[in-house]
Design brief:
Elements lengths: L1 H13 L2 H11 L7 E3 H8 L1 H10 L2 E8 L2 H5 L4 E8 L2 H18 L4 H5 L8 H10 L1 H11 L3 H11 L6 H11 L3 E5 L4 H16 L6 E5 L2 E5 L2 E4 L4 E2 L7 E5 L14 H11 L7 E2 L1
Parallel strand pairs: 4-5, 5-9, 9-10
Antiparallel strand pairs: 1-3, 2-3, 6-7, 7-8
Length: 280
């Protein structure tokens, strides 16, 4: 039995292409499907592979009560076995393998393939794929860089490749030479991506021309700025200009004003940025 388990484990390690495609299709489009009937997957993967996925914990089974009107009247309850990935991250990992293999082959239709995957919902599919395949990463990064939001996220994908560091430095230099904006409507992933770019710039001694907090500033807490999203913004040492635009007061519909205490706290924040020149 032990030899059989080892054989199946090696077989799965060497060929999980069917699972990759299955995971990719599960995450594609607006309506992701993350739960399946046992019979469906048993038939798709075959008994040996299915049992192996269950045994190692990639997939897990749940007993779900199926109780329709007829069965209630007959006082007869039945359990169905539903199957899911142990964690969505597992699904994203295998989907990334499929993406990494196929985005290069379908380079002419890469946008169509990537268009089915929301990068701000499935960031790890993109990042894993970039780390798995350098050729694929070029297509993925080019696709992401079509928009300002995607360009910020593309930086994180570039960072997945250690041998691409110089390219990353040049892209970041260009990006932070203009206003770097954090808007209150940006989702948390986009805001975190922006903060990682600021941190990267500081670590690489890249001047940050201007950080524009567009209605995203909430308060100063200790020595850091806290955004409305709850994300903490530590000071970027190479920041030159901090611009804060306050949101409107819900009652007066006028822009909110900063108290003297808040202004002092912001001054203390920017004074820690050794390249700082301007606050507005």
């Amino acid at each position: 039995m032990r030899d059989e388990n080892v054989h199946m484990s090696e077989a799965h390690k060497n060929d999980h292409s069917l699972l990759d495609e299955f995971a990719f299709e599960a995450l594609s489009g607006y309506h992701q499907k993350l739960v399946w009937k046992k019979k469906q997957l048993h038939k798709l993967f075959g008994e040996e592979f299915y049992n192996q996925y269950i045994r190692v914990g990639i997939l897990v089974e749940d007993d779900v009560l199926d109780c329709d009107v007829i069965r209630v009247e007959e006082f007869h309850d039945q359990y169905n076995v539903e199957v899911r990935f142990y964690h969505k991250l597992f699904c994203e990992w295998y989907a990334a393998h499929y993406l990494a293999r196929n985005v290069s082959k379908l380079s002419s239709n890469a946008a169509q393939l990537l268009g089915n995957l929301d990068p701000f919902d499935l960031q790890y599919v993109y990042r894993f794929a970039c780390g798995l395949n350098k050729d694929a990463s070029e297509h993925i990064i080019k696709y992401l860089q079509r928009t300002d939001e995607g360009q910020k996220f593309a930086i994180l994908c570039i960072l997945e490749q250690e041998d691409n560091m110089q390219d990353c430095v040049e892209i970041v230099k260009k990006l932070v030479s203009y206003n770097v904006e954090i808007h209150q409507n940006d989702n948390r992933l986009l805001q975190r991506s922006t903060l990682q770019i600021l941190e990267f710039s500081s670590n690489k001694e890249i001047p940050i021309t201007c950080l524009y907090l567009n209605k995203s500033y909430k308060e100063c807490e200790g020595s850091n700025i806290v955004l409305h999203s709850g994300i903490t913004l530590t000071y970027p040492s190479t920041l030159q200009h901090l611009k804060i635009e306050m949101g409107k007061d819900e009652e007066t519909c006028e822009p909110k004003s900063l108290s003297e205490e808040e202004i002092n706290a912001i001054f203390q924040y920017v004074l820690r940025c050794r390249a700082f020149k301007k606050l507005s």
